[in-house]
Amino acid sequence: MKRFRLNTALLLILLGLFLGLCGFSITSTYCAWDQLTATATGTFTFPAETTP
Question: Superkingdom of this entry's organism (predicted)?
Answer without folding.
Answer: Bacteria
